[in-house]
Amino acid sequence: MAVLPTLQKQRHPLASGAAQRRRLTEVRLPRSFETALGTTGLYPLRPRSTDILQINIGKKCNQTCGHCHVDAGPDRTEMMPAAVIDACLAVLAANRIPTLDITGGAPELHPEFSRIVREATALDCQVIDRCNLTVTRLPNYRWVPAFLAEYRVEVVASLPYFQGRQTDAQRGEGVFEDSINALRELNELGYGRPGTGLLLNLVTNPVGAFLPPAQASAERDWKWELERRHGIVFNRLYTITNMPISRFLQHLEEKHQTEAYLERLVQAFNPAAAAGVMCRNTISVGWDGTLYDCDFNQMLDLPVASVSGNILDFDAAELATREIALGPHCFGCTAGGGSSCGGAIS
After folding, report:
1. pLDDT, tens digit, 9 for 90 and up, residues 202-216
2. Which of 23, 172, 189, 338 has the most CB atoms at less than 10 Å from its CB?
3. What does 31-77 look like in DSSP terms, one character per residue?
4. What is the pTM of this model?
């Protein structure tokens, strides 16, 4: 499998969260996100509960995808230290948070990935692994699919499209073939098949500066095409809007499309989607333990507005009253059918 190392070796000018925030706030939009929320009665936006602890355990990845909002790649060295992992597990136990959502980079590359899964499962948490699929084809990680099945981990697998050309264009030559082989192996283990309880959900985002298709109709098409072409089955398809963050923001800048794309998101604002945004039931933890309202805020270096700003000082009561940090990028989660780590919202 090929990767695209040149994209990662030459870090783009908007690599830092602060630089991205500055660029986004420079764009003159018809209205701010705060104003849009005000029309729905949701401003200031506050959490409803903490049902999901999402932990980014490292930015190292075996791929370098053109639109990656994490800016992950083979040369990234950030990895969650053991003390932060222990704190995450302690917070899960003490607060009875039902779901642990593990992301990266490629989370399986973290040397303590298996320990995290085992210990979270022992706490009766639903564990989600956000897998890029191709990592399971690497010689040293061939154990991953069987391990995930043994611990009944929900797999949320990223795949840009059900055809090779579009997928390889975004992720590198050979990625689609490796992804299909990984999906076949997961199916052989029972993933995506009725009655097994082994959930295999796919997540896709558009290869371009436009909104994703309606999730329900896209899911029907994907199920038909992947089974017809490759004999692959899965449970759900999640459609996610490209967020104007990191490499995708740089792509927009290079194409002189930043303003037009943000205006498209603003015009597509959906009040119903705004009510269900993921930041209202999720706490996102960075590799260093910093707390964020969502994964996107994490990549913009926009931490929670709370004195309990690190997992080592987690205070559930104090976090429950916080005001969620917002910005122009939030229009991405509320455009059209909405967008979250669990796909469309409305």
Report:
1. 999 877 888 999 999
2. 338
3. S-HHHHHHTTT-PSP------EEEEE-B-B-S---TT-TT--BTT--
4. 0.94
Residues 6+ apart with CB under 8 A from 223: 233, 234, 237
The CA–CA distances, whole Å, from 32 to 29, 249, 259 equal 7, 19, 14
Nearest 5°: phi and psi at 82? -60, -40
Peptide bond into 105 cis (omega under 30): yes
Q: Which domain holds residue 109?
A: 5-333
Nearest-angstrom CA–CA distance, 293 and 155 = 23
Over residues 155-202, the pLDDT tens digits come to: 999 998 898 888 888 788 889 999 999 999 999 999 999 999 999 999
Whole-number Å distance between alpha carbons of 36 and 72: 32
Longest CA span, the chain: 53
Look at the alpha carbons of 102, 199, 153, 157 in this order and tell me if their dihedral is positive or negative: negative
Strand partners, 154: 128
On the question of a cis peptide bond just before residue 44, with omega within 30 degrees of 0, the verdict is: yes
Q: Is residue 339 part of a domain?
A: no
Distance CA 240, CA 129 (A): 17
CB atoms within 10 A of CB 252: 21
CA distances from 90 to 118, 319, 322 (A): 14, 16, 21
Say whether pLDDT at 228 is over 60: yes
CA distance linking residue 216 with residue 99, whole number of Å: 24
32 part of a folded domain: yes
How many domains, in total, are found in the chain? 1
As a whole number of angstroms, the distance between CA 15 and CA 11 comes to 6
CATH number of residue 297's parent domain: 3.20.20
Query: What's the token pair of residue 165?
Result: 């050309």
